[in-house]
């Protein structure tokens, strides 16, 4: 803590004041030169969105992100603070982070005029230089810009006195980054109030000529204009953003799988081991991709990556509930656990159907389509000919979430063809993982019309088609 604590010490240290956008640009350049990533934890945008965002930072632009829900817009906005200097000096006691070299508030100007080089300095961490507001129809100019404080007026000050102001969120984020989420939901008359902030860099309160030349990087997020009828982004405001960046959902299943595993939180209890086979993560992720291509799902609303994460968490939770009930310590989700995804899916997509009550059927159909796609990626029916032949000879297999792992192990011991089929897909040495692979093979053969399946409750029976 050897930072200067007075204005005189600050000058002697050689500290130089920079506009926030120049500060961001310099730190971004330093990271690029050092070969470091500007944004950590954002996957799938390496060749699309992130280059545009880096260009906007180097150009010193205010930015608006356009994209459907669940496309990491807020995460990227919040991660911008990592490009700020770790600590920034302000005039001690300032509500709006006044620059000790160029104060803008009446409080700071008066303090500097009176104390000179003895003016006290506070230091603000970069995490505290970020402000955020979710745009709602009831948001007011007072919330964003500020309002006259009646208490200060009652104390004897004139309304025209700048010291009567209670600063809003944007002035309080002076020399930092301010974000507005869901910008079109902001009433149009309030959007007009942001025009000066973006272009002239000043604010006006209650008609008094109070000029606050703010130093703020403004970042906003919005859904595409055809997504919602709740509001619209007025053209003059949209024009004042230097860069408009369009986000998107992960283009490859593999990328979304990595995101889901990065974001999901699984059961963590003593004595319990959780293993999520890659095939199950792929099924959950493929399910989201199938939904994004389905004519039965409202694509303007989107299919968020949050659905993939939630579905993976629920899948593991259902497997854990089943394993605990069976007295097993190794939790591994199976195909029979996929029925639990209905609860975590229903609230995250908008089904468009001509008939009421078909939502569950549509979700189930998309889920089975995802299972079939993953099955075909790993198996060919020719490879499983011996397995199918066994069923044609009278083999009948019972599966379900109430069956312990031991029954699957016994099934494999009596069916060498099935044992050989799963060994190339999973680590068959772990019995719970082998059980997962067995259910995938059987369900895949059923969906490929090679086996018949009868379901009753949580139990299913697979038999030959002969």
Task: Return the domain count.
Answer: 2
Structural class: alpha/beta
Radius of gyration: 30 Å
| Count of helical regions | 20
Global mean pLDDT? 88
In terms of DSSP E residues, the strand content is 5-15%
CATH architecture of the largest domain: 3-Layer(aba) Sandwich
**How far is the first residue's CA from the last residue's CA?**
81 Å
Question: So, the CATH homologous superfamily of the largest domain?
Answer: P-loop containing nucleotide triphosphate hydrolases
Query: What level of helicity do the residues show?
Result: 40-55%
**If you consult CATH, what is the topology of the largest domain?**
Rossmann fold
Question: Which CATH class of the largest domain applies here?
Answer: Alpha Beta
How are strands sequenced across the largest beta sheet? Answer: 4-7-8-1-9
Instruction: Give the overall silhouette.
Output: elongated
Unreliable spans: none
Number of strands: 14
| Sheet of most strands | 5 strands, parallel
Describe this structure in words.
- This protein is an alpha/beta fold.
- It folds into 2 domains: 7-246, P-loop containing nucleotide triphosphate hydrolases (Rossmann fold), CATH 3.40.50; 253-463, no CATH class.
- The protein has 20 helices and 14 strands.
- The chain has helices at 7-13, 20-34, 49-59, 73-79, 106-115, 141-144, 150-154, 169-172, 188-192, 195-198, 235-240, 253-263, 278-293, 305-325, 341-346, 359-378, 385-392, 405-413, 416-423, 431-447; strands at residues 63-66, 87-91, 121-125, 130-134, 146-148, 165-167, 176-181, 216-222, 243-246, 273-274, 330-331, 397-400, 452-456, 459-463.
- α16 (359-378) crosses α20, α18 crosses α20 (431-447) and α19 (416-423) crosses α20.
- It is elongated, with a radius of gyration of 30 Å.
- The N and C termini lie far apart (81 Å).
- The model has no long low-confidence stretch (mean pLDDT 88).
């Amino acid at each position: 803590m050897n930072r200067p604590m007075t204005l005189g010490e600050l000058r002697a240290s050689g500290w130089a004041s920079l506009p926030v956008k120049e500060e961001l640009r310099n730190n971004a350049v330093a990271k690029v030169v050092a070969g470091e990533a500007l944004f950590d934890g954002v996957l799938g945008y390496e060749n699309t969105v992130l280059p545009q965002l880096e260009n906007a930072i180097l150009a010193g632009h205010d930015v608006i992100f356009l994209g459907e829900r669940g496309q990491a817009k807020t995460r990227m906005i919040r991660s911008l603070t990592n490009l700020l200097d770790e600590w920034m000096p302000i005039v001690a006691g300032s509500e709006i982070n006044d620059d000790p070299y160029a104060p803008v508030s009446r409080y700071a100007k008066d303090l500097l005029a009176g104390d000179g080089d003895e003016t006290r300095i506070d230091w603000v961490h970069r995490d505290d230089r970020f402000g955020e507001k979710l745009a709602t129809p009831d948001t007011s100019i007072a919330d964003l810009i500020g309002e006259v404080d009646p208490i200060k007026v009652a104390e004897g000050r004139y309304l025209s006195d700048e010291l009567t102001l209670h600063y809003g969120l944007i002035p309080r984020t002076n020399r930092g980054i301010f974000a507005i989420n869901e910008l079109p939901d902001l009433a149009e008359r309030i959007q007009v109030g942001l025009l000066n902030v973006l272009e002239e860099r000043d604010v006006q309160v209650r008609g008094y000529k109070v000029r606050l030349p703010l130093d703020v990087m403004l970042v906003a997020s919005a859904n595409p204009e055809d997504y919602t009828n709740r509001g619209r982004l007025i053209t003059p405001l949209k024009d004042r953003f230097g860069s408009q960046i369009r986000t998107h959902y992960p283009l490859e299943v593999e990328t979304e799988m990595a995101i889901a595993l990065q974001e999901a939180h699984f059961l963590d209890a003593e004595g319990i081991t959780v293993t999520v086979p890659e095939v199950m993560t792929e099924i959950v992720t493929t399910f989201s991709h199938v939904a994004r291509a389905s004519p039965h799902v409202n694509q303007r609303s989107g299919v968020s990556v949050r659905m993939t994460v939630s579905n993976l968490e629920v899948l593991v939770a259902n497997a854990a509930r089943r394993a605990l009930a069976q007295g097993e310590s190794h939790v591994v989700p199976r195909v029979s656990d996929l029925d639990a995804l209905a609860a975590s899916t229903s609230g995250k997509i908008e089904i468009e159907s001509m008939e009421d009550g078909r939502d569950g059927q549509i979700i189930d159909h998309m889920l089975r389509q995802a299972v079939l796609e993953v099955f075909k990626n790993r198996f060919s029916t020719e490879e499983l000919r011996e397995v199918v032949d066994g069923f044609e000879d009278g083999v009948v297999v019972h599966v379900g979430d109430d069956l312990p792992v031991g029954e699957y192990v016994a099934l494999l011991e009596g069916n060498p063809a099935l044992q050989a089929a799963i060994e190339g897909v999973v680590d068959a040495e772990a019995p719970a993982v082998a059980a997962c692979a067995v259910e995938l093979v059987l369900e895949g053969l059923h969906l490929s019309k090679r086996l018949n399946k009868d379901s009753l409750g949580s139990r299913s029976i697979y038999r030959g088609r002969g």
